[in-house]
Amino acid sequence: MVSVKRFFALILLVTFIISTGLVFGADSKVIAYYFHSNVRCLNCHNMEEYAKEAIEKNFAEELEDGRLVFKTVNVEEKENEHFVDDYELYTKALVISQIKDEKESQHKNLAKIWAYVRNKNKFIEYVTSEIKDYLKE
Length: 137
Hints:
6 helices, alpha+beta, single chain, globular
């Protein structure tokens, strides 16, 4: 029979392994990129602000443990120009990228942000829903 001390030690070990991602999802994360250029209008600033708010309010734990990363990227900076071709960007965009084993396995341009930019609640609901789907993968 297992002693109470050993049982609790085992529970602590399993909890630690799971919480640090050593077993589940250690090689998987989602990156949410907000892409912009040097010229930015009010809608462009709002889209970045709404995306950041959606992510910080609804995914604090995932941000904290690294399962989700939010990056704002100016595609006009030399080191970021490749994103235009990588994601076929033609305007400001929010792209979510699934990373597995240090490689992108899939991505999605959340194009509906343009339709929802004048409705903050719908924008946040849309972004939250799409990111939740990617985090399930």
